């Protein structure tokens, strides 16, 4: 599940790096994302194989703070246990261009994670945390995440998105602990 906000006005925002990673994974696997119906209507998703495993790649069509409903709908429709949910999201508490993997933990003020936790009833899902860094000076974090990446950051953005997509694939192939050892040593 790649988190972000809908619409072209948000496409380059730091808050949308989860969607950027999801799109990279879909391109790598040749998975076409399309709108769902019924309980899945608030997300685009596609099924296929990634890193040798059957996956459902998806992103909510709702705003970040309403991500939980679409996530719950997709989990129920595809009969995916919450233990297998992988959420790719931006992380203020990591320096820019850092990728970290974990299961569970707090939401750190991230409204998308808070919504998913509410809808699934647990914090115990896998997370691919993509570092966007802290805002400069006294800038409000809510404003910072809704701004596009800086010119300097954009020069490294494709590499960061690729590294985060690699981390997802490593997680799928090797499991959390082995993937953490490998991914955390790289960035």
TrEMBL record:
Residues engaged in binding tRNA: 10, 63, 65, 111
Keywords: Cytoplasm, Hydrolase, RNA-binding, tRNA-binding
Pfam name, any one: Pept_tRNA_hydro
Active site: 15 (proton acceptor)
Positions marked as site (Stabilizes the basic form of H active site to accept a proton): 90
EC identifiers of the protein: 3.1.1.29
Keyword Protein transport among record annotations: no
Source organism superkingdom: Bacteria
Record-marked site positions (Discriminates between blocked and unblocked aminoacyl-tRNA): 5
Entry-linked InterPro entries: Pept_tRNA_hydro, Pept_tRNA_hydro_CS, Pept_tRNA_hydro_sf
Subcellular localization(s) per the UniProt record: Cytoplasm
Enzymatic class: hydrolase
Entry annotated with the keyword Nucleotide-binding: no
Catalytic activity: an N-acyl-L-alpha-aminoacyl-tRNA + H2O = an N-acyl-L-amino acid + a tRNA + H(+)
One GO molecular-function entry: peptidyl-tRNA hydrolase activity
NCBIfam families: pth (TIGR00447)
Binding partners and assembly: Monomer.
Family: Belongs to the PTH family.
Record protein name field: Peptidyl-tRNA hydrolase
Lineage: Bacteria, Bacillati, Actinomycetota, Actinomycetes, Geodermatophilales
Name of encoding gene: pth
């Amino acid at each position: 599940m790649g988190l972000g906000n809908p619409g072209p006005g948000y496409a380059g925002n730091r808050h949308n790096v989860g969607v950027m990673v999801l799109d990279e994974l879909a391109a790598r696997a040749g998975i076409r994302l399309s709108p769902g119906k019924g309980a899945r209507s608030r997300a685009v998703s596609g099924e296929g194989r990634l890193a040798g495993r059957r996956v459902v790649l998806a992103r909510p069509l709702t705003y970040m703070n309403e991500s939980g409903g679409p996530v719950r709908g997709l989990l129920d429709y595809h009969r995916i246990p919450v233990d297998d949910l992988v959420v790719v999201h931006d992380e203020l508490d990591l320096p820019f261009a850092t990728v970290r993997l974990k299961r569970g933990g707090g939401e750190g003020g991230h409204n998308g994670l808070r919504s998913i936790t509410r809808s699934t009833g647990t914090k115990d899902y896998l997370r691919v945390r993509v570092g966007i860094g802290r805002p400069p000076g006294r800038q409000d974090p809510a404003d910072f995440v809704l701004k596009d990446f800086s010119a300097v950051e954009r020069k490294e953005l494709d590499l960061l998105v690729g590294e985060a997509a690699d981390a997802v694939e490593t997680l799928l192939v090797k499991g959390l602990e082995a993937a953490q050892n490998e991914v955390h040593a790289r960035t």
